[in-house]
Amino acid sequence: MTAEETIAPATPGTHSGGAGLVRLMSIPAVKVLLIGFLLLLMLIPLDYVSGLIKEREARQAEVAAEFQRSWGPSQSVLGPVLVVPYWTTPDKPKRYLHLAPSQLKVSAHLAPELRKRGLFHSIVYTADVSLSGTFLLSREAAALDRSTVPLWQDAFIILTAADLRALKSSVMLNWNGQQIPWDDCGKGSDAGCGKELYVVARPTLNGPPKGDEAIPFETRLELRGTQAFRFAPLGKEVDFTVSAPWSSPSFVGALLPSASKVGSDGFEASWHVSSNLATGRWMWSSLQAFPSEHNWRNAEDQIGVELLEAMPTYHMVDRASKYALLFLALSFLTYFLFETIAGVRIHIIQYGLLGLSIALFALLLISLSEPLGFNGGYVLSSLMVLLQASLYTAAVTRSTRRATVFASVLAVLFAFLYVLLSLETYSLVVGSLALFTALSVVMIVTRRLDWSRGRRDDGAVVEVGPVSTDGEARPA
């Protein structure tokens, strides 16, 4: 038997299985299903990047908490308040009448700075706070009826803040021309300080002022804090002004400023609070000398400002990462249109490699934004992904023209995303309109495509054979 006789002749259809699979993969509807499955797989690396962002954000919060412990917390200032002990009856405990100023003017100037610890940071400030005004005591003293025994000689002035560690020992209270030092609340007092840290000044009062005598006072404080500065507006008439060389403030509390000015070089805001408002409490009586039961630290009863980052890194990166799936979908769509319109054969694995390149954007963004800031990190990471994906597209399609089209699409996406992230109020509207426009373009481009056979309605064949070295498809 010859060698030729031992070989069985090839029967038709021996390679029909492979060819059939190729034809099946060439059907647009099938390719769309594969691309959709690939998009679902891309959720795995995206979820990993999302978890990494949350981890870094948690570390940033830990660093901010460390700065609050070592530098100072968000400051909240209360005072000054005049406290007058009195007896109602000998068999009952001593009570305390609290009198806030009839006129109070507070001016706070913040000197903020960005303190870093490794790649993480926190906004801290030093506050120069000036308090001045007058106490008008005769009418308030009348609240103590004849059955009470006020102890004017034991009266004292109290003042507190969230953290008084930066308060200098030389700070004084100017009380009607008399310089009085601020002392620890427990020094020379039978009244407990409670859980709050107060300083106390003890003027000499032998009795209530005569007539409508207004007692002027003035003091100056230096405080250190992080992120926010607030003031509890206790008084009949309170004027509060705060300023800082910071371009992105957020005014918070019970009332918005009556006047404010914000610019690139800083801000200044002012409030006017009257005693007829809920926040303008100016007189009350209690069993405690040092206020605690009315919870004056409640942010809703205070006014003030928070110093925000113009571009909060982790917040912006988290927002950008949420658009990664949209980037993938539009990039895959561009490849799909290259196949269906231009006749370029692109394997599903090549789609996957492109998807991994796009998914790396969020990871590059967070790693580069930490040392460079969000703006610098965004520019550099988008350029890296744009260059990598465009060069890969040029190799896949073997066409500089198509790689240029893809690079243009990706560049527009990156530029649009940056604009969208910069918009706070209208980001949803702009994003919705952009998606509507993109969908309309896709519907127009694919309106003649026969999704089941890969042909257009005009008879042109979309299904193609192998790609030649010049990037053009040979007939199937």
Description:
The chain has 476 residues and is α+β, with helices and mostly antiparallel strands. The protein has two domains: 28-57 and 314-456, no CATH class; 73-310, Immunoglobulin-like, CATH 2.60.40. Helices cover 38% and strands 27% of the residues. It has helices spanning 3-6, 16-26, 28-70, 138-141, 313-321, 324-340, 348-397, 400-422, 427-445, and strands at 75-87, 95-99, 103-117, 120-136, 149-150, 156-161, 172-175, 178-181, 183-184, 198-201, 214-226, 228-231, 237-244, 249-253, 259-263, 266-274, 283-286, 303-307, 449-450, 455-456. A hairpin with a 7-residue loop joins strand 1 (75-87) and strand 2 (95-99). The protein starts with a helix and ends in a 20-residue tail after the last strand. Residues 1-15 and 454-476 have low confidence and may be disordered.
Mean pLDDT: 80
CATH overall fold name of the largest domain: Immunoglobulin-like
Biggest sheet descriptor: 10 strands, mixed
Count of extended strands: 20
Unreliable stretches (pLDDT < 50, length at least 5) are 1-15, 454-476
Count of discrete alpha- or pi-helical segments spanning 4 or more residues: 9
CATH architecture descriptor text of the largest domain = Sandwich
Helix and strand composition category: alpha+beta
Please tell me what the overall shape is.
elongated
CATH class of the largest domain: Mainly Beta
**Fraction of residues in helix:** 25-40%
- What is the domain tally? 2
